[in-house]
Amino acid sequence: MKVTALAGGVGAARFLSGLAAEVRAEDITAIVNTGDDFRWMGLQICPDLDIVLYTLAGQANPATGWGVLGDTFACLDRLSLLGMPDWFRVGDRDLATHIARTVWLSQGEPLSAVTSRLCAREGVACTLLPMSDDAVPTLVHSAGGDLTFQDYFVRLQCQPVVKAFTYLRAAETAPAPGVLEAIEGADAVIVCPSNPLISIGPILAVAGVREALRAVRGRVVGISPVIEGRAVKGPTVDLLRQLGHEPSAAGVAKLYSDFMGSIVIDEADWSLAPRIVSLGMETHLAPTLMDSADARRRLAARVLAAAGCRT
Amino acid sequence: MKVTALAGGVGAARFLSGLAAEVRAEDITAIVNTGDDFRWMGLQICPDLDIVLYTLAGQANPATGWGVLGDTFACLDRLSLLGMPDWFRVGDRDLATHIARTVWLSQGEPLSAVTSRLCAREGVACTLLPMSDDAVPTLVHSAGGDLTFQDYFVRLQCQPVVKAFTYLRAAETAPAPGVLEAIEGADAVIVCPSNPLISIGPILAVAGVREALRAVRGRVVGISPVIEGRAVKGPTVDLLRQLGHEPSAAGVAKLYSDFMGSIVIDEADWSLAPRIVSLGMETHLAPTLMDSADARRRLAARVLAAAGCRT
Questions:
Q1: Using CB atoms, which residue from B71, B72, B79 is nearest to A100?
Q2: Hey, which of A149, A226, A243, B88 has its CA 20 to 30 A from B6?
């Protein structure tokens, strides 16, 4: 059984760690958002690829949702003394990933090959694919002006009110090698409980991805990142509201209904089910809060069942 | 009183720390070798500028002769796990210097401005000048083939037998702004007890430097890095021998005699004095081993006296 997942950052990483306990890691392909990638002090940082990699390698810091467990900040502290900005917190071990990645990219390796190399070194057997080998930066159009994504997300802590996002050049940019094949050939395509606008949205915007998903709609299943009108982490609910979407599991389902046959929503949101069913989507109720390794695993099993891969 | 010094790495750094105890730091300009600068994992490293900077800032690791005191190696250890070479030991704090320097260089700042900025941040009041803002890499022609400098010096631990050095494009490369003026306007120009072939040699090779020194020969004073046929640190004696020079204070003096009016040699080498005097150089005997802060300071005072700046 082949399973392909569309993934953002920490929520996706946690779900994937549950999935890897239910499905052979070799049979999992994660297509990861790179819309928030950026250059930091000359180094290429891919926050979502990194948190997924660290989580699957058992090295993630669960307290922060970013970085390496037990990391130190000696380099960043001295960079700060030297007058460099320190609002993006890069630890000493984390830094090694960015240095190695930047060296390999500068030698002409595409990001997908670099990512595969990092996975091999970390002993991660899942296939991690960047959504594209080319840059598709997410731009944030806020009430106060346009921002780069990390300016908005980390430096300004998601405080600006967002009017729109642009996934720059997405429609003209090819997905990374293997992305469309992984969607077409999967027994189940899972849309992780990530932010639909800034994590999944960029992936969907890359040329051909949404069309490929529509073609296999019956095998696409999502998990709502919104539970009772709240998100476990991040600005999902605020952003849905700011961009005119309903800040609920039903609002998320509506964003996906053209390519998603089934969605798993939290059982607390049972009253939303009829409205989601009316969008033509199978609606499954389950506990979706991933507050333990067991909970992650049970959610993964429930999602696989919703996709028709388990009885 | 203005003092200008030509400086290599650790020997020069130690001498300069003694000099800074005798002369106002604001009146000291050090022209530092950059022939061993190189790119390491995409970052610009200037080993001699760094050790001089760290030493004057009171941050150097005296046990190693490179790096920052108390530094950690979390990043390098993980780079090694990722398959990157780890023979050049860059600590986490040290790394911050290289990252900041590389960022500023990439923004178009010349190395001299970057160095000045680092000095200001570290509270170093001496003026540190790279010998040039442009790259003048020292190439090592060994019996087994040509090597980059750090390959020879660090990776191969100076084991290859050297046939010649090339200071690439030195004769066509301008010194950094202020270098010639610092030589012309100084009351004393001190050639630090550094390796004459790989530390001082590259500085002398930069366009106009040797000529500028010749023009003020009476004010140029050197310190022999060789004591009783041995060097305190590094391959000085082996290299002198391999390149056909006498491996002694007299051999060093001969390399400098065209532009150096006086030299301070160790009192243990008293028997060499007549031969050095015969080169037209004032020869001063002093304890030159810098095995304490006091010894550094006394040597600096002795050198200033030899240059006629003290009675």
A1: B79
A2: B88
